[in-house]
Amino acid sequence: MEKLKLLLIVILLGIATPGIAQETVTGIVTDANDIPIPGVNVIREGTTVGAVTDFDGNFSIEVYENDILTFSFLGYKSSQVTYTGQETINVQLEEDSAELEEVVVIGYGTVKRKDLTGSVASVGAKDIEKANKVDAVSALQGQAPGVVVQRTDNKPGSGGFNIRIRGASTINSSETASGGGFNPGQNPLFIVDGIFVDDISFLNPADISSMDILKDASATAIYGSRGSNGVVLIETKRGKNGELKIDYSGYVGFREAYNLPPVYDGPGYVELLRDVAVGQVFASNDGDLSTRRNDVDISDYLDEQELQNINDGVSTDYVDLLLKKGFQTNHTINLSGGTEKTTYSAGLAYTLDEGNFEGEDFNRYNVRASLNSDLADWLNISLSNYLTSAKQNAGSNEAFRSAYRLKPIGRPYNEDGSLRFRPIEKETQITNPLFDVQNEIRETRFLQYIGDIALKIEPLENLMLTTKFSPNIKYQRYGEYRGLYTKSSSGNVANRRAQVDNSNYFSYSWDNILNYDFESGVHAFKFTGVVSRFMERSEGYYNQVRNFTTDEYSFYNLGAGLDIRDLSSGFSKQTLESYTGRINYTLADKYLFTATGRYDGSSILSADNKWAFFPSAAFAWQVIDENFMQEQNVFSNAKLRVSYGQTGNNGSGGGLAPLASQSLLGASATNLGDASVSTAYLTGLANQDLTWERTTEINLGIDFGFLNNRISGSIDLYERKNTDIIFYTPLPSVTGYGGTYDNVGESTNRGIEIALNTTNINSEDFRWTTNFNFASNKNTLDKLYGGLDEIIFNVNGTNLIHRVGEPIGAVYDYEYDGIWQLDEVEEAAVYGQRPGQVRVTDVNGDGEITPDEDRKVIGQVTPKWTGGITSNMTFKNFDFGFLINISQGSTYRSVFHSNYAWGYADQPSRLFNGYRTDYWTPENPTNDWYQPGNGGIYQGAAHYMDVSFVKVGYMTLGYTLPSDLLEKIGVRSLRIYGTVQNPFVFSDYDGWDPENAGRNQYGAAFMARTYMTGINLTF
To answer: What is the pTM of this model?
Structure first.
């Protein structure tokens, strides 16, 4: 009781004591012209107590002795005043051009955003943090106009992305391309802390401080031949002057598969089989069109085991048997600090991402450290190191598709509960996928180091000389083992397979940079000169062995295999030398000029065409700083930009590898009598005229801001012209060569990009901001050299065409025109078809369907327009945000529908399980899907689909604990949050994922939704 009384006294004293010192202070807040500012937030630091100025700028707030009041308003610099007993506090706020003063990373340097002359989009650390993705590329989706990020693989750790900046810049016929028109060779140049890398999947997103995307030729020209597809500059977190700061961020959650297309259960499959049997009758030229489902006897297509299973009510959902929830977590700790002369930063991170099938997971460890030190007033040294160690288990290639194909009338388990290898004994093509996930291993181990050491010398005032060496070292080992009880082995010892692929990669950039700044009156000059050398070399070793006596060795003992199938190796090397100059001139701080020239030499082009020069120029006018703009109060920012320039492509975007333009010798063997003799042959035809592919671009832009930048943004219009496009051109077989690399044509990209940032509400307790972006690109192939009008090719089953006047890689096939109906028997017969079959458009109306006359361009794989919406709200200490990613106007041949819409319907006894959809029957005369077993010769036309989508990228709700509470335990800030990633997808496409509808489903994975909770903590 005494303790309770004492506690009450303490509580009362705690309440009463500050109340004695509480005072009311009033005042007025004005701008530099003494004009009152309404809506200014006045907050007692360390609390959530505050006030807002009224229309005349007046405020009133309760305060205590030594309270610090913070005055803040959008478009103005914050101001702090300590209360020491004043009756009135009047504050004058200065205009804040922080957004314009923001430093943007450009090639070989930085520049304030207000001084930009090129087109550059930025994604900051807060945007990346909110996205909360496992991989860095995903953090770009929907965040920047004109940047299309297409996920090509949903496996954990796959790194499967295609990125397009302002459309397709070249053409490619690679059969490995993902969906035609998209291929990794067209991805932008990635530069991490000044180091060239081919992808950024090794990065931990929480380590990134900024991502700047250089889009137009003026911005990318300083990278010359490497900048034709755009440039993504990434800076990792560095140390800052100040006391030691420790940041920790971490989350845990789970991912679940969703948007799963339905397949038939046991009874549904039986009905499908009946309809397939009817379809077979309809497909016959003399078939009876009056045949119905009840007229057929399906026992003709089933064996005794299947009939017994049907009678027993067997209905197996193999997808459900395989699916599981995947655990996901990330933990990142960062230390930073320093003095005026030396700053440091170090970080450690761990990531785990499990898939939705057994055997699928991704582990990644990241270690980084950086140091920047002024050794003298004229000498600076900086070191940066980033190390990644990762392991990906990709699981089974077969289980995914087998689960969708297996008949649901099979039994996956024996009576004793053990797994049955063949759920249906007569089905020899598909085995139990539960065996595959347990007996197939596909493991990739990955180790990568990037780093740089830079020495800066300032021999004269405003003159800086920098030499920087940046290595990139990668080691990757892929190991695969297919055990006895996998589909590929099917119980045959001789088919057990082990494969090991090792690759070693090394590259370096050695940059010598001169920067000179000069100011005199209204004139300001900055000159940047660069002499750079880039070298990369890679080697690989490939081994495959079969016929193992046991599964115990996995792929670690290749010598135990008795059948050597592949033993090979490879090596490649290329170099690039560059000489670059850039001049930035500013007149009166409002007229900005930039001129850049780069001279590049590439080792992989023909001897007479290795060198090329790439110039650019840009001008920007800070209209807002003109005298005639000073009296108006509508615009808070207005800048006009125009740029023109050239970049190049040495062919890597079109598939050109080192030495690929040369005639090389390949090894072979031939029989002379009874002996095998080694021989050599020419592997390709040299093209001594092969030269640089060039991109010439003009860009017009405007940056704007209204109402103290409560509304701000930019609009860019561009035209990009590609000439001398490099492409692997097939040659007639009589030449003895498959083809050669050549400069084949010209193309144009025209587009518009809009970025809009709005502050919708900015009150005392509630703030709501929204960022919109929109981009539309029209791509046209203008010319093909050598008298060609078109090049037709196929990628993953999608028929594509490079035709003058059409988009690069346009979808080219018959146009789906519905289903032939029962009352159209005679009309269908004209085209040799029957009711229930796919009807295609007779383009020329001649009464017959021919490939040359009736195939047409029916779409494009690149989206016609893309967009994104990011919205963030704060209410007191709560925050809520979401991102929406939009892609519209893409067409693909859906691999899902072509593979899973009643496979082997032409052989009912082998009928796979199928996608449950609304198909045509005599009783259901729909035009959506053809009759099973009776698709006709043009049924493939039904598989081309619009794969437009709207995806909600994430939804996040967070709470930041009050700072006055945290100070007592020595914590600077603590935020807890919950996030749902990919919560919704809206699309007419009804396959697994519209984003990778054209992907081969061998080794594929489901789209996933992730639920997670986490904290952000700073000491």
So the answer is: 0.86
